[in-house]
Amino acid sequence: MVRGHKGLTVRGDSIQIAFTYQGVRCRETIPRPPTQTLLKQLALKRQAILYEIKTGTFDYVKHFPDSKRAQQFRKSRPDLCTIGEALNAWFRRYWEDYERSTQRDYQSAIDHHLIPRFGSLPLADLTAIMVKEWLADLSCSNKRKNNILTPLRRTYEELYLNETLDKNPLERVKNPTATPREAHPFSEKEIELILNELTGQERNLIQFAFWSGLRTSELIALRWKDVDLEQGRIFVREAKVRGHLKGTKTISGSREVTLQPQAKDALISQRLFTGPLNNWVFHDSRTNDAWKNDQAIRKTVWTPALERAGVPYRNPYQTRHTFASMLLSRGGNPLWVAQQMGHKDWGQIRKVYGRWIQPHE
Prior knowledge:
Elements: E1 8-11, E2 14-21, E3 24-30, H1 36-55, H2 60-63, H3 68-76, H4 83-94, H5 100-118, H6 128-137, H7 142-161, H8 188-196, H9 200-212, H10 216-219, E4 227-228, E5 233-236, E6 238-241, E7 244-247, E8 255-258, H11 261-274, E9 283-284, E10 289-290, H12 294-309, H13 318-329, H14 334-341, H15 347-353
Antiparallel strand pairs: 1-2, 2-3, 4-5, 5-8, 6-7, 9-10
Helix pairs in contact: 4-5, 4-7, 5-7, 8-12, 9-11, 9-13, 13-14
């Protein structure tokens, strides 16, 4: 031990600093020549460490970032972990609980948004105002902002409920209001122009989309076993997202849909191409196999047809809006239309399609 400097020991060309933390005798080596100046600095450092230990503010990693013992103590103090470490640990624990598409979305949010902005910050240092300011500068839709925020919310919620943290700053951060997709339905004339530019399986697919209200991901996951032409109905049970099958978006999304005449005609025509021995109803005619994703339909069928027809571009989701607006304009009961589209109640119908709902006497 160095005379006049309690807790410091010279070891060749290095100095060892000793202290007790959480009942453990700790020794950390400083690989620098033991000059008098350095000894005085380390004596002050040790005093600061002892004071922080006494007041409960000691951060081992801050003082000795390369120490193996520091990493061991960090495990016993998760609140001193970085946000990046906590996010990755949370995601590893719950990875198997999510569908593939959700796994990819959360991984993207963590890798491309949350860790670049907050990853190196200690968990306990995050504040609500930091998150609010970051959200305000984030250039994407409010719906996307909410999705990006979800892994961070769930990480902090778990740590707070487990009493690892004594506060959860995310509780004071409201989700930005996500406005529903605006409806720009096609007119019957536009539908006719688009369908006239299509033949065979492509025409059947798009005609069915206009008159069934299914999402594109549900269209490409439809199987012949879920089609009941005799009773004029289909059963929507799955969706295909990024090439992988998953359950419908919500519990109410799993539903029975009554076939409109035009939708039934499209299926009868499609049966000549893929039924009844094939599994999937709609095939990509270029490969004579099931569609892998909705992007392929957009690029090879939908966009070229609208261009040839001279119809202003709207995304394929607008076929769903078209279906709803047509039924409501003809006096369809909003509750029934909501059920046909897979909404749990008619609140969403009222928000998005209110101007097409016919008043009842």
